[in-house]
């Protein structure tokens, strides 16, 4: 069986695809024509069979799919898009138009580091005593996506941070009381309460961190 001009074009298209060039014949067109023709013949020297044509068509179809996947880049993930709007500066971290500022106070019982959030253009402060950086980051991200300061999500984060702060202060107080107490039973009680407060604070921290990845 001799090779027709259509078959030669089809094979040339395959070579063009492999070389990264644009094919001029749609995959499957020639194959459909061949399927409607007579019985399959054994190929002689320099010839091709219907199976050869079918195989080449499948390869071209796969190459087309691969090319389309490479050309049509997927949409960036939400976390990636969010990261594009975040940058560190001398004050802390800028999230879109919202600035997270870090402060320090050695006398603060819930931890010497704390954070505030304000709008970079209006200088409007929406929070100035946040214990967890994770809380500040979550809130700033929500505000940057259009959430309001009094929205449920933002309020829940602030409430969690207040609870974390309270447990940290309780843990510190129980620690001091335990050190001052001369009664062994009271010391054990204060130590148990201190540990319970620390555990609750850690649970809140874990919950807020999870909100960042959600």
Using brief descriptors, characterize the structure shown.
214 residues, alpha+beta, 2 domains, five-stranded antiparallel β-sheet, 7 helices, elongated
Radius of gyration: 34 Å
- Weakly predicted, low-confidence segments: 34-38
Instruction: Please state how the strands of the largest beta sheet are arranged side by side.
Output: 1-2-3-4-5
Distance between the termini: 63 Å
Order of helices and strands: HHHHEEEEEHHH
How would you characterize this protein structure?
With 214 residues, the chain is α+β, with helices and mostly antiparallel strands. The chain has two domains: 5-71, no CATH class; 78-213, no CATH class. The protein has helices at 5-18, 29-35, 50-71, 78-84, 133-144, 152-180, 184-213, and strands at 86-88, 92-95, 98-104, 113-119, 125-130. The chain has a five-stranded antiparallel sheet. The two termini are 63 Å apart. Residues 34-38 have low confidence and may be disordered.
């Amino acid at each position: 069986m001799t090779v027709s001009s259509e078959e030669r074009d089809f094979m040339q298209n395959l070579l063009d695809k492999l070389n990264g060039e644009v094919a001029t014949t749609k995959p499957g067109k020639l194959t459909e024509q061949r399927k409607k023709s007579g019985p399959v013949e054994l190929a002689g020297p320099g010839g091709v069979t219907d199976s050869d044509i079918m195989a080449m068509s499948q390869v071209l179809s796969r190459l087309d799919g691969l090319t389309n996947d490479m050309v049509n880049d997927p949409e960036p993930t939400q976390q990636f898009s969010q990261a594009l709007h975040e940058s560190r500066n001398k004050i802390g971290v800028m999230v879109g138009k919202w600035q997270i500022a870090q402060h320090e106070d050695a006398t603060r019982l819930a931890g010497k580091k704390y954070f505030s959030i304000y709008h970079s253009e209006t200088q409007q402060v929406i929070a100035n005593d946040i214990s967890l950086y994770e809380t500040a980051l979550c809130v700033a991200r929500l505000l940057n996506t259009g959430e309001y300061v009094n929205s449920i999500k933002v309020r829940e984060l602030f409430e969690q941070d207040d609870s974390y702060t309270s447990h940290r202060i309780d843990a510190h107080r129980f620690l001091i009381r335990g050190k001052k107490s001369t009664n062994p039973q009271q010391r054990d009680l204060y130590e148990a309460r201190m540990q319970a407060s620390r555990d609750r604070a850690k649970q809140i921290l874990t919950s807020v961190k999870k909100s960042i990845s959600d």
